[in-house]
Amino acid sequence: MATVPARAVNRGAVVCCVGWLRLDMASGPTAAGRRRVATVSGSTPVAIAGRRGGPNVMTLRQDRWWIQPLTIFSILFAFVVYVTWAAFQNRNYYVGANYVHGARDLLSPLYSPCIAASCVPGSTHHVQLSWWNFSPALLILFIPGGFRLTCYYYRRSYYRAFWWSPPSCAVQDHHTRYSGETRFPLLLQNSHRYFFYLAFLVNIVLTYDAILAFSVDRGIGVTVGTIVLVVNAVLLWLYTLSCHACRHLCGGHVRSFSEHPVRQRLWKWVTPLNAKHMQIAWVSLIFVALTDVYVRLVASGAITDMKLF
User: 3-state SS string over 184-218?
Assistant: First the structure.
């Protein structure tokens, strides 16, 4: 048995949605291809008088379609609020040689690369901008922030959750006009590929930070902080490499893969990651915030970075 949407029946100025149709496939070899159609009782009169030629009601959906945009709004709003707060703190973002439980080298990803003159000793990446005396996070967060802001998946998410454009499938758009991404500021969404290149470089630095996290008590070891930074770096690499811009870079504008075997192998490798881009986007977003929380708690003395071996 299969269920398909019923067709809309035009009755003058009113369109009636006659519900859903059930297609019962008769069994047996003699009944092959025969169908018995039953119409669900009830109809919903809908006048064509809404925004941009749509119906005059918000939606005909009866499910809780609003749960997804509300959840997305809550997560993204909470993330932006926390990151903004953390960026202006300008403290407790690094655990270094003076840690009371033994030397560590843990740097929050929100402050890496730390290239400002205001960076605490030990956290710098061999380059210092002497003219910047504010929070180091404010200097570099535009790169991962711009990368996610212009991301194809995140654009769909916050367009729906914040702008209701539209909030969900088969739900009325709350804008009377549609111009796509052809006007400022949405025209800046085309910069996504350039943020991808910058984010790639930042990921290299975060990988370097994860390697330095194996420095424990002026030797080599593993702590909880080490695992946190390594997992964070891996997730950010997965998010970056699963990006649509990365997949296009590997296989885009290729007329024949047989003439570009290396690009074909790269394209085949990133395509399965691209299929999981949505899940990776959310996991990496939440974990980068949790990584900052962990480093901040250790640096402030609220918790201890436990040495595993």
Answer: CCHHHHHHHHHHHHHHHHHHHHHHHHHHHCCEECC
pLDDT at position 259? 87
301 HSE (CA, 13 A, CB side):
3
Strand partners, 16: 9, 45
Q: Which residues of 281-293 are buried (b: 16+ CB within 10 A; e: fewer)?
A: bbebbebbbebbe
Q: List the end-to-end C-alpha distance of the chain, in Å, as a whole number.
A: 58
Are the CB atoms for 50 and 56 separated by under 8 Å? yes
Residues paired with 14 in a beta bridge: 11, 47
**Looking at residue 11, what is its pLDDT?**
40
Count of CA atoms in the C-beta half-sphere (13 A) of 74 = 6
pTM beyond 0.85:
no
Is 232:288 a contact under the CB 8 Å cutoff? Answer: yes
User: 179 to each of 114, 118, 176, 192, 298, how far by Cα in Å?
Assistant: 40, 43, 10, 19, 48
Name every residue whose Cβ is closer than 8 Å to that of residue 107 and which is 6 or more positions away in sequence.
93, 94, 95, 114, 123, 209, 212, 229, 295
Using the Cα atoms of residue 23, residue 25, residue 31 and residue 33 in order, give the sign of their dihedral: positive
Distances 302 to 29, 31, 54, 97 between C-alpha atoms, Å: 72, 72, 56, 18
Written as six digits, the tokens of 200 are: 């790639």
The C-alpha atoms of residue 11 and residue 2 are separated, in whole angstroms, by 27
E strand or H helix at 106, and its extent? strand 106-107
Identify the burial level of 244 via C-beta atoms within 10 angstroms of its C-beta, where 0-12 means exposed, 13-18 middle and 19 or more buried.
Answer: middle
50: closest CA among 175, 179, 163? 175
The residues, any chain, with a CB within 8 Å of residue 216's CB and separated by 6 or more, are 102, 103, 104, 222, 223, 226, 307
**pLDDT digit string, tens, across residues 62-82:** 889 999 999 999 999 999 999
